[in-house]
C-alpha cells in the first residue's frame, strides 16, 4: 500500500507527499492529462520531464477501445509502453457513463456502452474496470462509478450514489484479487474511491462517511464541474471534505482553472486534473501569472517578449509572442505545441508556488494575492 505523509496544514490547505511504487508525488499536485497515453499537442515524455511533471492521468475507456489494455499488458504495461517512469493515475471509465449518455445503459452489474469509435458494444462494470486498469499497470486506479449530472433530480442521485458505493466494494475486492496474481503488471496498484452526490449535502456527507470506512489509498470528489456553478462547487467542497480522511490524498476530479485550484486547495484538496492547459494551448490561449492571453490577438504580431517574462518553460526560454502568433496564424503545429508546453509548465509551477506557500504558513495571503494578480491581463485586454 502506498503511504501519504501529511507535512503541514495551513487553514484547511494540506501539504503532503504520496509515496508510490513509481516515485513520490508532492502535493498539492496537478496531473497532466495524457488521455490515450500522450498529452495532446505533440508533447513527449521527455518534454514532461523537462517541464517538471510529477504524474500523468490516462483514460481507461479510451485505452481499452484503442489500442487495447490486453495488448498494452503484453507489451509490459502503460509505463513501459509510453516510456514514462513516474506515477500514472488511470480514471475508471466512470466519466464515460456521464459523457456518453446517449451511448450507454446502466444496470446493477455495470454499464453497456457503444464505442464512440466504431459503435461496437462494450460492457464495463467494477470488475472489468479493475481488470483493465490492472492490465495497464497504472500507479493509481480509480474506482468505477456513475457520475450523474450535478443538477440531476434528488431521487435519481440517491439511487446512483448507493449503486456507486456497492460498485466501490466490488472494486476493492477485485483489486485485492488482481494485486495478488503472479502475472499482474503492478502488484502495488493503489485504489482511490470517489465521493458522489451531486449538489445534495446529505447525500455527499453520508457517502463520504461510508467510503472513508473502507480505508482506501485515497479519495476523490467526483461529479463536480459538470453543470453546477463555481459557488455550488466550492460549497460542496466546504461541506464534504471534512468528512474525508485528512491522512489520505483528496482528489478533485476534472478541475480546473488556476482560480478553481487556488480555491479548492484552500478547502483541503491536494490532487487535480483538467484538460484546460492542453486544450486551451491548442487554441492559442496561454496562462500567465497575470492572467490568460490569446496569442491569436493582433496585438502580439510584433511583440518580441516571451509569453511570460521570467518563465523558464521551453517556449519562453527561446521564442517570442510574435513568432508564436505567426505560427498559430500559419497553422503550424509548433505554435500549438509551444503553447501547450508553456501551459503545462505554468500549471506544474503554480502547484510548486502553492506548496511553498503552505510550507511557509502563508497560503491565505498567497491565494488572495494570486487571485488578484490573475485578473491583470483581463483588465489590460479589455
Automatic annotation (TrEMBL):
GO biological process: tRNA queuosine(34) biosynthetic process
Annotated Pfam families: TGT
Residues the entry annotates as binding Zn(2+): 311, 313, 316, 342
InterPro entries: ArchSynthase1/Queuine_TRR, TGT, TGT-like_sf, tRNA_ribo_trans-like
A Gene Ontology term for the protein's cellular component: cytosol
Biological or metabolic pathway of the protein: tRNA modification; tRNA-queuosine biosynthesis
Active site: 91, 273
Record protein name field: Queuine tRNA-ribosyltransferase
Phylogenetic lineage: Bacteria, Bacillati, Bacillota, Clostridia, Lachnospirales
